[in-house]
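User: Structure tokens for this complex, please. No commentary.
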Amino acid sequence: MSEKPLISVTNIKTYFPIYGGVFSRQVGDVKAVDGLSFDIYEGEIFGLVGESGCGKSTVGRTILRLLDPTAGKVKFRDDILFSVEENERLSEEKMRLLRRDMQIIFQDPFASLDPRMNVSNIVSEGLIAHKLAKRSEAVEIAIDLLERCGIAGENAGKYPHEFSGGQRQRISIARALSFNPKFIVCDEPIAALDVSIQAQILTLMQELKEEFNLTYLFISHDLGVVRYFCDRIGVMYLGNFVETGTSEQLFDNPLHPYTKALLSSMPLLDSGLEMERIILKGSVPSPANPPSGCKFHTRCPFVFEKCKMEKPEMIEVEPEHWVACFLVENSSENQNEG
Amino acid sequence: MLLLTHVLDTIRGFAIMNKSAPLKISKGQSLWAITLTRLFKNKLAIVAFSVIILLILMAIFAPVITSFDPNRINLSNKFQKPDDIHRLGTDDFGRDVLTRLIYGTRASLLVGLASTGISVTIGVTLGALSGYYGGWIDNLVMRLVDIFMCFPFFLMAIVLASILGPSIYTVMIVSGILSWPSLARMVRAEVLALKKREFIEAARALGLNVSSIIISHILPNVFSVIIVYATLGIAGGILGEAGLSYLGLGVKQPQPSWGNMLSAAQNMSSLMFYPWLWIPPGIMIFLTTLSINIFGDALRDALDPKQKK
Amino acid sequence: MSEILRIRDLAIDFNTSEGIVSAVRGVDLKISEGEVLGLVGESGCGKSVTSLAVMGLLPKPEGVLKSGQIIFENKNLTAFREEEWQKIRGNEISMIFQEPMTALNPVLTIGDQLGEVLQVHKGIRLGSKENIDICVENLIKVGIPRPQQVLNEYPHQFSGGMRQRIMIAMALSCDPKLIIADEPTTALDVTIQAQILDLLRELKETMKTSILFITHDLGVIHEMADRVMVMYAGKIVEEGPTKELFANPSHPYTQGLMHSRPGKVKKGDPLYCIPGMVPSGRQQIIGCAFEPRCQYSFRPCKTICPLLEFNEKGHGYACHLSKEGGIANVGKAVNISN
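Assistant:
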């Protein structure tokens, strides 16, 4: 891993306006992402986990500028993609060029391919639009990529509906690879697939990472997959990180009550390994009206007065391992005193 | 148009095949191809389609089919009963009814096609822009649509026709301009739904610009809505022509059209004693619009199999 | 324990525009009183179709019951007419669906929907005190706070987890002898899934209802079921008591499924992949349906369909290798290949 981050995200926020009333005035915001900072280093797989509605997909799209940010700054190598505070924004033309280096794979393999285009056109479209290859060359490249991703070249003339979910996801991956990018946002790429196909796609992505020197931002709700696949992981709750750390740190020594609850909720195959199950009360509050203080306090089994008033800051408990919880703060202070 | 797209797809498929000669690429079945196979499984659709083709041929080859001049007046030969020479008789000026009926096809189809062309052009452009961009453009277009939808068709048509003067062009313009709003709405709704689909996001992530996203991803996917509307719109145009011409605001005499043939027969004696003056154009209007509507419905079913059953 | 449901040689075809699809190709199963039977398999394996057949809800006219008997408490349901089904459905057999969002009617209050079931099956008039009392009691059972008010609220006012609780309350209203739960937690987040599974386990203890639990998630089935059946391409390939089956998965498909879950695999180790795809159901399958994807396939697999063979523990699997005595060996081989 190199020292300089490939992508550096500083305090990004993405709010979606809510309109209401007779004159559809803005009455509030859905705070999908509410202040998130992290770096992704070259060759790394950074995992984002959390339940639905925690804003993890919004993060990926905001980084790629597919959504407009409300605040914060994203740097890709030396280019500032946007910085709302400094009023900077990479011009559309430069962004267009940068897009070759940053691609995305979506969750739903049935919605992410244009049903009226054949597969070779889907994969070669970017190359042609960027005038990187002539049509015939682009089609050849597309066929090579498809074969690399496990789709036989003779099927390049077929249409998306003629493929199964797993195959479509392979086509999506081939499309994302067409520019030979550095960085790929993987937005729940295996969530919609069957178990046996999930393993195939994960293996393919692992191979491609080595072969093409890729860096992934891997968004998922499946803790088992994230543990296996990612180097570092950020656990999100209502638009914020509650804990970040390496895969080993998080799974061997989870510190935040939410991370603990998530891990213990995972249904396991072995009877022996079960940890004490923490069953959280209630469901995730609406991001349009998040709780004050620590956002998790409404469901936290260890809640106390301070949590309702103040927002805990992220503190580093060991190298790379950050947690936002007053309990951890206290215990580490106590340890220091003792 | 459907056929054209299919042919283009095929050519593209061949192009790929030739370029990468050693690898045999099997051509997939595009959604258009599937639509066509489904469409031609529907027997009623085939019958309707044949009637439409027959009408088009009739309009094109009118002078070959009949040897009479549709406008030649022969007062000594008026109100002839159908016989071997005048198969559908003659009218109050002694003109051959069958000939006028055949030439009338031209007027009807022309009006149908032209008015649909006008409304599709306006409707698709405004609908797509309003759906894709949203914001004030959307607001403006939708208010315009609301305003146009408030106009009562025939009242507007009568006013416009009396300003522009009755002619075949008036009919085309009037029915074209008054029928685009519903299409604009449909296209807008489709585009709004499409915009949220992930393949559009993927295209943006690939760095495609707005115009190529609209042309290569959005329009082909709203095409099915447009083509169904257009087919049904032609029938609407033909009915509009018949109605306006019947009121004397459409195609002017002596140029024949089904509407003004009916109009000319609107008196007691014609109704009672000369049925060959009004039954044939009535049947033609009925048959044409029915065929087009059946074909349009079949097309809709074939394009969207979920709606079937 | 007496037997509640027995299915004999069930076969179901679907007539689609692209030809006949064999969804279920000869399934035998039985559920005893108070037992939770887990039916696990990937999408398209026929598990949901089986459950629809038990409810008499096969889509007509596409779904055709080709052969087989469904015997519920000594009544042959396959011979039933629609009116007879209606007496059974929601009364003696009830169902919990995957999508609590679509399974509840959005324009009726919770009270109306819960009460209606009682009115139809038990003749307890909607709105009567007795009806309301039973509804409230059921809502308390499934852990819904302030049940009195909830009766007057509409489905959209609840979160996914709460809706699923309401669905369960509805399924319980008539004290059914059998509940069919078709992927009841698939649409839910992990922490909510843990809540619902906890509730179902609790109900199972107190109510002694039999449950047919259908899911694609091996972890969930491991936690819920007493006995497990693994389904592949319309047939049961393995069956046994949960502990026994998870300790000794014997069919190559079951083994593959378990190993392709990244849960146990160490980070960096390759995942086990079952190659290929599930057969479409359109082509005629003569031998073992898993043969094209099976690494142990040998001569008889292509032509002879293996039958389920049980050992003394009640654990059986349908594979020609069982005769070769190769169960344990096969298991080891998979582990080594990992």
